[in-house]
Amino acid sequence: MKNTVKTIVKSVSFLLIVAIIWCAITLWVRPTDQMTIYEEPDNTVDMLMVGSSAWYTFWAPMASYEACGYTSFNYAQGGMPADLMKYCIIETLKHQKPSLVCIDARTFVYRAENTVYITEDGKEYLKDNYVRTVSDTMPLSLNRMKMILDISPKLEDPLSNFADLLFYHDEWKQAMNKGTVVKGRDYTKGFDIHTKTTAYDKPDDMSGITAELELPESAEAALRDLLDYCSKQEFKTIFVALPVASEDDEMKMQYNYMSRICSEYGIPMIDSNDYSDEIGLNYETDFDDETHANYNGTTKFTAWFSLYVMKNYPLADRRGQEGYEFWDEDLSKWNGLLDAVFPDRVAGNTNENGGGN
Amino acid sequence: MALISTWFFVFLIASLIIYYILPIKIRYVALCLSSAVYMYFAGGILGTIVLASFVILGILFAKIMQSQFFSGEARSGLKRLVYIISMLLPVAALLLFKYINPFGIEAPMGIAFYLMTFMGFMTDAYQGAIREKISPVGAGLIIGFFPMMTSGPIVRYGENATNIKEGHKFCYINILHGIQRILWGTFKKLIISERCAVIVNTVYAAPDTFSSAFLVFAIFAFVLQLYTDFSGCMDIVVGAAEMFGIKLPENFDTPFFSRNVSEFWRRWHITLGAWLKDYVMYPVLHSELFRKFKKACKNKIGKKHGEKPALYLSMFISWTIIGYWHGGSLKYIFGVGWWFLAIIVLGELLSPFFGWIKRVLKIRTNNTSYHIFESLRTLMFVGVGLSFFRAASFSVGIDYWKCIFTNAQNQKGMLFSNDIYSLGLDLQDILVLIVAFIILLLVSIIQYKNAKKGTSVRGWLDQQNLVFRWTVYIILIFAVVIFGKYGQGYNAADFIYQGF
Amino acid sequence: MSRQEILDSVNSVFREVFDRDEITVNEETTAADVEGWDSLRHITLIEAIEDEFDMRFKMNEVTGMKNVGEMLDIIAERI
């Protein structure tokens, strides 16, 4: 009997050691040069943007901080899978207490086209590379494991996501070359400057359309799952449909459908495309491509949405507050970045035409 | 369900759990069940039907031949008829599925191996070599026990049936040693074999673009690839069986320490060589026909050498069968058959001459340096034969050798030209391969030395301290996980000998 | 023939087959004990014994005998 206990204890300890080394090597080997919200000091982010590349081109947290003192962060990846946003929020909540969470509505609308694929025998799976953009940048936590466990029916090869060392193991060559990467704080707070301009025609005004178009079943299920979670949390939630250069009526009708479902859970949704005039969007100069703003568009949207938040949600002005000094440090780095990208600009004004925002 | 895959791992654990939960007297039920399930998922419907058929036939024929009905002389003719039928069926199946293959389909999984076991079993039953009453479960399991379905080993009723069918007590050491063995096999396969495969494939794809040194090097790389692939597979198979407390026969015994080609074939694919010796060579040599032939030879060329022609003829038959067993094409019959026959016979014929040289030059043969010389010599001969094994056909093999001799002009000194990277591996992979090879060599030396004492590497490991043991395990596990060639784009799970 | 006589005859066959006069076998002798008794020589030895005693071993005996003692048993049965 004593021997059995000894054997069990030995086996369990051995497995634990293997697990720890496994995690350490996973962290070393997986491609995570990207900076994340997990480097921010605890409890300093008041507003969390979750979603796709739309957030990280349209919303400039530092611009909003400079103007209003709002501390926000873009938890955004290109092609963010709608199914995973809930887990991003859960993970963030371990270190932050945002009072407002802003969700990119378009993740549910592009889901059918971008996020999932259907196999020959008609099964729908999440595209592996988009799942990894999220799982690779998340700390190796139980929440992350639960996320993979929950979505494993939607994964074609769940094992390589659970034990992603098995997937990334070949990266040991790169990992050896890059040495130790010390990830610092992201002074752009998850923002990515785009500078290209593509001219578009101003789309028709869709605000009059009230008809609805159902989302695909799996997208709606993911939507309800997220809404159910958010409605039970302390933070306030708002769904935002960010501007696109060519909103069509089909998209509008899907947003209408989503909006109604959101309201079932007491969560508001706003379609910024209906407010393009108020935002001052110029479709010829403000878009990098169809779904991304260049910095012209960014400043306009950031200003507009900051005002919207100011009117509807009591967010604190953190400028000058104790414990938030590092935001001022980051602000000067941010301005340094803008100076570098736009050498002709006047501080606080990056409009190419020299006019005010 | 490849041997190196999540599914096999899960399947093995499930089988083990069921096995040890059942009462010890009926643990064989778990084995039968697992083997049926395994063949269904790994071998498909065809594989399952063929295996089931031969299991049933095997039990039937064996019981019939062992029965009282045939115990007397009176029915010996009838008994022989039954035996012949029982042997023709597997031969027909092999011919049909592997050589003629009219439907163009893949041969049912494992037939090249378990039908050998089957035929040996039929022969043992016919000759009365099996003393105890044949058990259907034992018969079924020696034919169809699932770890053996990929590449054998070829087993015998008398030696293995009891061990496989009798339930074994749970023993922690068995589990531990089994896992270690599986880990070691995975190390050989995923780290060494797969890297060698890259080199070999690159060179064999375009032999006329490589200098002679590279062409020769690629042959050695293939030998290493084949060895680590096949013996790695056997490690996994034997290790898996060991976790059930079952001891399957070994197929490899540090073959590259052999002093000559004869010994090599007693250390490489051991169960195949033993099968051929016991079921082909001996019966042939012992037959009346051959006795007469031997007498005639002795009369003609004297007693001392009179044995040889018969011997060589029987070896010729055996080696042709080995060649054929690997595949019906000439490249196998030559490369894995007649080439080795030639070397063995040459060795025999020339041995007086070499003996004279050794005496004249006062070369001592009982030391390490001579042993190394013999091992390298053996390796060279083996390499030539296997170079044909790897070639797409016999003529391609010949062309390869032509390139070796004609590309001599393009010599650039392998070590010092950057062309080492033209083999398909980058510097880091080459380093991993070298280190892994050195580890393999060291372990093999320990194995070779311990074989005489009857101990094993794992036994030696058991005696070391905990920290050392755990460090070794952890290094092995993570070496396989990090440096193993598997994952997207790799079909490492396919073993070379699985195709037979 | 007595057992000892059989053993003596077997011994002389060994000496002839292996071409060495010093060889002495007993009941426990196995292939490991005699140098040169490999699988090829084995069949030669078997046939020489068969010729000496004018009997035949069965095929499974040829491969199944564990030591000289078993060989003597079979010879004693057959002659």
Features:
heterotrimer; A: 357 residues; alpha/beta; five-stranded parallel β-sheet; 46% helix; 10% strand; disordered C terminus; C: 79 residues; 4 helices; 61% helix
Secondary structure layout:
The complex is a heterotrimer of chains A (about 350), B (about 500) and C (about 80).
Chain A: H1 2-29, E1 47-51, H2 53-58, H3 61-68, E2 72-76, H4 85-93, E3 100-104, H5 106-109, H6 111-115, E4 116-118, E5 124-126, H7 128-135, H8 142-151, H9 158-162, H10 165-168, H11 172-178, H12 217-231, E6 236-241, H13 249-264, E7 269-271, H14 276-279, E8 287-289, E9 292-293, H15 295-312, H16 325-341
Parallel strand pairs in A: 1-2, 1-3, 3-6, 6-7
Antiparallel strand pairs in A: 4-5, 8-9
Helix pairs in contact in A: 3-15
Chain B: H1 6-21, H2 27-66, H3 76-100, H4 111-127, H5 136-144, H6 157-165, H7 172-205, H8 212-243, H9 261-267, H10 270-286, H11 288-326, H12 330-360, H13 368-390, H14 394-406, H15 427-453, H16 457-462, H17 466-483
Helix pairs in contact in B: 1-2, 2-3, 2-4, 2-5, 3-4, 4-5, 5-6, 7-8, 7-15, 7-17, 8-13, 8-14, 10-11, 11-12, 12-13, 13-14
Chain C: H1 3-18, H2 39-53, H3 59-64, H4 68-78
Helix pairs in contact in C: 1-2
Short description:
The complex is a heterotrimer of chains A (357), B (500) and C (79). Chain B has helices spanning 6-21, 27-66, 76-100, 111-127, 136-144, 157-165, 172-205, 212-243, 261-267, 270-286, 288-326, 330-360, 368-390, 394-406, 427-453, 457-462, 466-483.
Write up this protein:
The complex is a heterotrimer of chains A (357), B (500) and C (79). Chain A has 357 residues and is α/β, with parallel strands linked by helices. Chain A has helices spanning 2-29, 53-58, 61-68, 85-93, 106-109, 111-115, 128-135, 142-151, 158-162, 165-168, 172-178, 217-231, 249-264, 276-279, 295-312, 325-341, and strands at 47-51, 72-76, 100-104, 116-118, 124-126, 236-241, 269-271, 287-289, 292-293. Chain A has a domain at 33-110 and 186-341: 3-Layer(aba) Sandwich (Rossmann fold). In chain A, 46% of the residues lie in helices and 10% in strands. In chain A, α3 (61-68) crosses α15. In chain B, 73% of the residues lie in helices and 0% in strands. Chain B is built from 17 helices and no strands. The longest helix of chain B has 40 residues, at 27-66. The radius of gyration of chain B is 24 Å and the shape is globular. By secondary structure, chain C is mainly alpha-helical. Chain C has one domain (3-78): Non-ribosomal Peptide Synthetase Peptidyl Carrier Protein, Chain A. Chain C has helices spanning 3-18, 39-53, 59-64, 68-78. The longest helix of chain C has 16 residues, at 3-18. Chain C starts with a helix and ends with a helix. Classes of the chains: A alpha/beta (357), B mainly alpha (500), C mainly alpha (79). Chains A and B meet through α1, α10 and α11 of A and α17 of B.
